[in-house]
Amino acid sequence: MELLENPIRPYAWGSRTTIADLVGRPVPAPHPEAELWMGAHPGDPSRIGATPLVDVLARDPAGQLGAEIAERWAGRLPFLMKVLAAEEPLSLQAHPSAEQAAEGYAREERQGIPRDAATRNYPDPTPKPELLCALTEFHALAGFRDPHRTVELLRAVETPGLSPYVELLAADPNREGLRALFTTWITLPQPAIDALMPELLDECVRHVKDHGPFELECRTALELGESYPGDAGVLAGLLLNRLVLGPGEAIFLPAGNLHAYLRGTALEVLANSDNVLRGGLTPKHVDVPELLRVLDFSYGDMTVTTGEPAGARHVYRTTAAEFELSRLEWHGDATPARLPGGTPRILATLDGELTVAAAEEKVVLPRGRAMWIPASDPEVTLTPADTWTRAFAATPGHAR
Ligand SMILES: [Zn+2]
């Protein structure tokens, strides 16, 4: 087991305080810091000393990953773990399925689009399921809301310009109606958006003032409208579930799920891929036709889970074969927890400090640090030093 040096991604929506404070650097940081990456992403891998984790894996895939995982994932670590610190909204986006990713990657290779081009949708051929676990109160838009409820929302903020769209959905309150309305809105000519938006946002202001039943949804539309004036993503966001997650609460975003993270700090584990289709709320590359190809228009409440208890761990089980996430918390007692061996593990301490012990090794894992524990290492024992300790462990998933 080895301590990791982890890269920080400086996207503009990040925080100047959260990640700097977590890793023990001066606050505020000179630039926004959005994501702390823990893993073996070829574009920005964690390091053991000066050696990138990807190189460590390449030298001894069977020892580091275990023979089965090494074979299943062609010598690569199938997941990436991140701390995500969002001060401002991220783009409206969805990720492809395995089949869509393979097809999209092959198509863009044939077209000769460089893999690092800003216009490239599929820089790799793999899907990107993600699991997001809130560390603080975390705000997000994710998954289509039940269209009956969305009709109520749109009627509550009804403006003359909006009524044809409300009727479109009210006549067909199902997947097809959602597809029709989303497609109409996201492809609306700019003059039509510019005519509709001020009227809609005025109604949202009124609804917020009156503390109407969709106050939070309207507030979000106003915030997005302020950050991205004239962006069709503000309209599209009205169709999504507005979530407020508490610490430890997680959502799983399978292929085709439309989502936009709004603000808060979260631990995210995802497949080791960069395939993102964006629909708006971003200065980055937006490709609406491609987004429409991968979107899943099923609807309903998102499942929010705090994980299943398994000994001292809470395990977040998903259908993703690439990863499984465990949360470990100690509230005052110092009972050691065990992390089974035989599989590659990344362990990160986010509060307090842990002592990690294997057969003949003992390493202190301070707050804000992460550790690589290869498959060849046995079960490890985790003992907290402080009263309040919180850690996360990621491993490959069990789903096949
Ligand atoms: Zn995403």
Automatic annotation (TrEMBL):
Transmembrane segments: none annotated. Residues 4-145 form the Phosphomannose isomerase type I catalytic domain. It is an enzyme of class 5 (isomerase). It holds the Pfam family PMI_typeI_cat. GO terms for biological process: carbohydrate metabolic process; GDP-mannose biosynthetic process. Residues 94-125 are annotated as: Disordered. GO terms for molecular function: mannose-6-phosphate isomerase activity; zinc ion binding. InterPro entries: Man6P_Isoase-1, Mannose-6-P_Isomerase, PMI_typeI_cat, RmlC-like_jellyroll, RmlC_Cupin_sf. Its EC number is 5.3.1.8. Zn(2+) binds at Q93, H95, E130, H259. Keywords: Isomerase, Metal-binding, Zinc. It catalyses: D-mannose 6-phosphate = D-fructose 6-phosphate. It comes from the Bacteria. Its cofactor is Zn(2+). Binds 1 zinc ion per subunit. GO terms for cellular component: cytosol. The keyword Metal-binding applies. The active site is at R278. Belongs to the mannose-6-phosphate isomerase type 1 family. NCBIfam families: manA. This is mannose-6-phosphate isomerase.
